[in-house]
Amino acid sequence: MRSATIRVLLGRRESRPECLRKQFPDEKTWITNEIIHNPTVNRRLEEMKVERIRSEEGRQRQFKMVQKGDVVILPAFGAGVDEMLTLSEKDVQIVDTTCPWVSEVWNTVEKQNKGDYTSIIHGVYGHEETVAIASFDGKHVVVQNVDQKHIRSDE
Length: 155
Known about the structure:
By secondary structure, this protein is of the alpha/beta class. Helix content is about 35%, strand content about 15%. It has two domains: about 1-100, Rossmann fold (3-Layer(aba) Sandwich), CATH 3.40.50.11270; about 100-140, no CATH class. The chain has six helices and seven strands. The strands form two sheets. A five-stranded parallel beta sheet has the order 1-5-4-2-3, with no helix packed on it. Strands 6-7 form a two-stranded parallel ribbon. Helix 5 (about 100-115) packs parallel to helix 6 (about 130-135). The protein is globular, with a radius of gyration of 17 Å. Its cofactor is [4Fe-4S] cluster.
């Protein structure tokens, strides 16, 4: 899997999307979701003709339109393991803007997955970050709010 050198420049609040076109001036460019929760940066990417790979509610994202050599930006929330494998098989250029704190959680969950642990993920069901974190773990429970604090795994 190839990863671009402009990772940090896109995934930050003061990001500079124009760096993307300096690195990839002519390549077809896709993004799997909003880059970050920053409307200005997201709007600038749209203006630069970066197209979103959409998914229908509750369905897996489809990558049929992505071709070998295209550029695919992974947002600050990350991407699920299955999506990263699909993109790797397509031989695309990946610009990984995953937040380092999200990656740190992935690493912890992945370590716990090797033992006999169940991870408790505090997050919003279906949110990109929660989905990506859960994809690194075999046994997990997603807890959305304090009212769900009683949920536990009996396995």
